[in-house]
Amino acid sequence: MWQEFKKFAVRGNVIDLAVGVIIGGAFGKIVSSLVNDIIMPLVGLILGGIDFSGLSWKVGEAEVKYGAFLQTVVDFLVIAFSIFLFVKLLNNLHERIKKQEETKQTAPTMTKEQQLLTEIRDLLKQQKETP
User: Which Pfam families does this chain map to?
Assistant: First the structure.
């Protein structure tokens, strides 16, 4: 069982996934800071100095913190848009590489007429070279 686990854990896909999760977590922190420390204060300033983190409703004893929810929604939208742009960039790069490979692989094929003309040219060259 230990051998199976080692084989599973060392495979490239698992390691790639782990790296992706770690980078994703770090990216999430960066985006959260961007939203909480830059975007939302600017939006609050534009809307008249509102601090979104403190917005809430009192319903009896409960406090509904809709300001924090709004920040989380903006956080999600920024992350989703960033991922969209990244995936779009990767797709464009993939298409470019694919087109380059296709153009390399599709060597121009000569028609019968072109083949005959090439043979005639080569024969004429041979005749000129031999006295």
Answer: MscL
Domain ranges, residue 51: 2-129
Tally of domains within the chain: 1
* CATH code at position 9: 1.10.1200.120
pTM of the predicted protein model: 0.55
- Beta-carbon contacts of 27 under 8 Å, excluding residues fewer than 6 positions away, are 79, 82
Question: Greatest CA span in the chain, whole angstroms?
Answer: 112
Using one digit for the tens of pLDDT, what is the confidence trace for 106-119? 767 788 999 899 99
Dist. CA 131–CA 129, nearest whole Å:
6
For residue 61, what is the DSSP state? T
